[in-house]
Amino acid sequence: MTCSRDENIRKRSPEIPASSSTLLGTVDVVGSDGEGRKTPYSRTLLRPVFGVLCWFWFGFVLVGCAKVGDPLPPVVRIPDPVRNLQLVQVGSESIELVFPITDDTVREVEVFRECAGEISEESRAFVRVEVADLAEGVEAGTRIFRDSINDVTGRCSYAVRLKGSRRHWSDLSDPVSTDHVPVARAPVNLRAKVLEDRIELTWDPPRQNLDGSKPANLSGYLVNSRFSSSEARYLDRDFRFGEAVTYFVQSVCREGNPLVLSLPSASLTVEPKDVFPPEAPVKLMAVAVDGAVQLIWDANTESDLAGYAVYRRVTGGSFERVSPLVTVNRFLDEAVSSDTLFHYAVSALDSAENESLYSEVVTITVNP
């Protein structure tokens, strides 16, 4: 009996158990004779295994790439040095160093002073002070260190440096030095005049210097350590009625750095009170409207204006107030009688209850 080549192959090949076929599976294969047959696809099972291995290798690469390096050293924050140290000579025995501290981590300040040489990095600080113990300057963020010495006659240089929260010190500031110039006496007889929009300060200039020499070494004045004036007069427009303010004045003997000032004058405290009434309203008009009188006038422009009061009188009588506080520039008077001659006037009031003079008087008769 003759068998085909495919049949011989099937006879020589062992039978695959059904359970194995189920595990391995089969695939349709087309032979050379065009007939299809089933064959196991064991290689198909290797594909998931290769996939798992590939993912494992990829994860290993990623872990290797994400390896944490050596730890970095901590960041050392060193305060910036003071760049604009201001030296102020007050009288002949007091020095003030004024400088900004804008870094909240600064805790201490070292002050250097040399009166017989120059300040260098090898110089030793003559005092160390806590920032909290320094006086606050006039300008926001500034501090003041005060040094008392016997006589500012020689040349003394000063510098400062700052210490941060981690005990790191800044570089030294640029040094500043005193200047020996005649120091004028303080101004005297400080007085004030309160006006509606300003407080006017005046004083008498000094006539000689502290050492008795004449004339007084003057280049101007300083009011309350911050306001300059070239004459013995200063206008304070930044005030509020009802709020007390204290003034003192110093003679300026040298401008710049160092700034040389006299001792302060005797202080003067002023309690400004608003006793200034508004202007009287203008252009008052009266119109009869349906048995009533309509009044209208130009509005006042004062910043502290509170309102208006309306007054009325009959011929031969006196003015009586006929309105509450009116906050607009008009008023309707309905409490009028016919065939009567009425006279009207309006006043203005401010927040301090100061009342103006009457406006011009208008006259009107209401017809029945």
- The class by helix and strand makeup works out as mainly beta
The CATH architecture name of the largest domain reads Sandwich
- Stretches with pLDDT under 50, minimum 5 residues: 1-34, 38-42
At CATH level 3, the topology of the largest domain is Immunoglobulin-like
Q: Helix tally?
A: 3
Give the strand order, joined by hyphens, for the main sheet: 7-8-4-3-18-17-13-14
The CATH first-level class of the largest domain comes to: Mainly Beta
What percentage of residues falls in helices of 4 or more residues?
10-25%
In the residues, how many domains can be counted?
4
Report the radius of gyration as a whole number of Å: 48 Å
Summarize the helix and strand pattern as letters: HHEEHEEEEEEEEEEEEEEEEEEEEEEEE
What does this structure look like?
By secondary structure, this protein is mainly beta. The chain has four domains: 5-65, no CATH class; 86-177, Sandwich (Immunoglobulin-like); 188-270, Immunoglobulins (Immunoglobulin-like), CATH 2.60.40; 285-365, Immunoglobulins (Immunoglobulin-like, Sandwich). Helices cover 11% and strands 35% of the residues. It has three helices and 26 strands. An eight-stranded mixed sheet has the order 7-8-4-3-18-17-13-14, with no helix packed on it. Strands 6-5-9-10 form a four-stranded antiparallel sheet, with no helix packed on it. A four-stranded antiparallel sheet has the order 23-22-25-26, with no helix packed on it. The chain is elongated and about 100 Å long.
